[in-house]
Amino acid sequence: IDDKNEQKAKEYLKDLHPADIAELYQALNLDEAEFIYRLLDSEKAADVLMELDEDDRKKLLKRLPNEMIAKQFIDHLDTDDAVDLIRELDEEAQEEILSHIDDVEQAGDIVDLLKYDEDTAGGLMGTEMVVVNENWSMPECLKEMRIQAEDMDEIYYVYVVDDDERLKGVFPLKKMITNPSVSKIKHVMKKDPVSVKTDTPIEEVAQAFEKYDLVAVPVIDSIGRLVGRITVDDVMDEVREQAEREYQLASGLSQDVESTDTIFTQTSARLPWLLIGMFGGLANSVILGNFEAGFVSNPAMALFIPLIGGTGGNVGIQSSAIVVQGLANGSFSLRNSGKQILKELGVALINACMISALVFVYNWIRMGNNGVTISVSLSLFSVVIFASIFGTIVPMTLERFKIDPAIATGPFITITNDIIGMLIYMSISSTLA
Amino acid sequence: IDDKNEQKAKEYLKDLHPADIAELYQALNLDEAEFIYRLLDSEKAADVLMELDEDDRKKLLKRLPNEMIAKQFIDHLDTDDAVDLIRELDEEAQEEILSHIDDVEQAGDIVDLLKYDEDTAGGLMGTEMVVVNENWSMPECLKEMRIQAEDMDEIYYVYVVDDDERLKGVFPLKKMITNPSVSKIKHVMKKDPVSVKTDTPIEEVAQAFEKYDLVAVPVIDSIGRLVGRITVDDVMDEVREQAEREYQLASGLSQDVESTDTIFTQTSARLPWLLIGMFGGLANSVILGNFEAGFVSNPAMALFIPLIGGTGGNVGIQSSAIVVQGLANGSFSLRNSGKQILKELGVALINACMISALVFVYNWIRMGNNGVTISVSLSLFSVVIFASIFGTIVPMTLERFKIDPAIATGPFITITNDIIGMLIYMSISSTLA
User: Fold this and answer.
1) HSE (CB half, 13 Å, CA atoms) of A109?
2) Any CB–CB contact under 8 A between A194 and chain B?
3) For chain A, which residues make up each domain, given as ranges?
4) Is the ipTM of this complex over 0.95?
């Protein structure tokens, strides 16, 4: 590649998968990358484009004229990928590109798909699929399929509709080969297939795929008409991203950052959370400031500040993580929230008793049975109970108000529990003192 | 179901997907569940069994004789599911069940599969697939396929091997329908298909599925012979579980717990981490105890303990989460570790300057330019730098020693940073005092 031997490079690229070319592309500088890009045929170039990172794709698209984007890429992409690509551009570019698409039917499909919310089945689906009528015979279907499937990548199911385009069944491709028959398709298809609606949230689509072990699912509109299909690769990305997002939020990262991002990008995702933590820490210093005299008369009080703050934070994170994950993978529903809070209270009581008893024994041996020994254990007990319930209720409440509960699991809950912990500790200490 | 109307219940169950029956089953008591279970035919019963939670499945299997497990379930399961099921039983039961399997070929496959490590492609694969020879013609392949595919659930690819059973190519099912031809299969198949080896770790298998948008991947042995296939549904479970595990470890949950687990199970997953946190807190109290006199002469020192401990914890979690996630999704490799540490140092410097400067200004206004103001900001600066580098290096080191780096992201790193933070703060304060 370095010596720009076109013939050799072309040969080499021909055998590579688009995902590998995308990786290669990202390792090169922009000049070399453009050289390679010109060697690819349009279809492969379009596939490589979709495999690039969003940032790199944007950079490349900015250098290209809109007409070329429409003719070179959009024409060769599945509608769902085309919609993803167009969504990444600004409105002006969107309109110009749409006007340059040669295939009017595809342009129409894309315009329709752009109307759906990105976070619903409608926003994830594509329109490339093989559709047959329930009253056709198997040979008719085969003939129709050969026409429809000509320029589709891969097909796993044939969808069966009635005369009003309502989804009636599916037909696994395998059966076409193993059980060829002359009967009407409606007698051999699988009836009542699993399907999702255009407004089904993406999380529920992913849950359906996992529950029913699907590789593709048909999407229907509000009156049951077949309007598209979602394939498993799009859903798998979704499952990964969703789980990663939860983890990132829990770790105090406010955007999707990777180790490969620049220092500036990383800082902008991390510093805000650290500043929130800083304000929490300063708030704590104000609270503790009210008890400054107590530290003079009883300096041992200060020694247990990290223990109480840390325990509250650890307990709160555990409780909220269980709720957030349960809501995400569908194992927990808000209908059981009363039961869940009670159960959490049970767990909290055991944890609180164990921890406060152990610390009491330790402090009793170390310092004897004085005010600090008692107030530390009493505070620990209260903090564990409070942090457990608080960590359970906050994500539930956010979910109820349709706010992503994952934002509750990160520094936010640690800091709140830290502050409440200090308030409890200082109140109990000063009451007992 | 309540009034045990067999006919009606049977009718109702017939139309339900195994995953839905499994859900229904888990909502019922054991008597009702057994009643339903007896109404299902063996194949459906086997599918329902695999959809149950591991705990419920174990409970049910314990009540059944081993011979019945072999004949009723194993015979109707795909080899990969059968292996999963058998792995859950103790050794004695395993041998008895294997001896009861009627189909000797299936029993042999299961014994072979049990030899592979659970966490590799070999442990995840099944042997149900359609295999054809590269020298056959298309009509011969179709005929062979009809025989092989008879009792397989779903097929997406036909795998092509040479006379020595080495994998040569794949053939999408779709092409059989759209391009029927009489030429030899080796001239129309897709050559050099993406494949994995039996000893490829599960994480890499999942990465291959995501990168190449696969629905199934062939598995080859060390000399390239085709030995099995892995389907996307098994991999999707893997992706979800892996991401959930990271999140759980980061949240201080030592096992896979769900909101539906009992109080006892939840406590046993949570209390150990809280106890580790408790020991950390007590260790901190010992460190702070050495400076007890300092709190008498300068009580303001105590006010900033939560700020410094909390900041160290927050920074450390961020740094380690970025490394852990990068290692898991393949975007980060140990080869770049030097570069990564330098980049982290850059981020840390910006964060440290911002936070210590802001806190300095705040404290200067609040208390004037005294020893505490200076030592708090100096400590914050050192703690941010230390926690960033420590949080980056620990997961890298664990990965190098083949220990799961995710265990570093939870309470462990928070507690360590908390303790180091106190040591730094106390040393700086006492030096300046």
Assistant:
1) 23
2) yes
3) 6-124, 130-232, 251-432
4) no
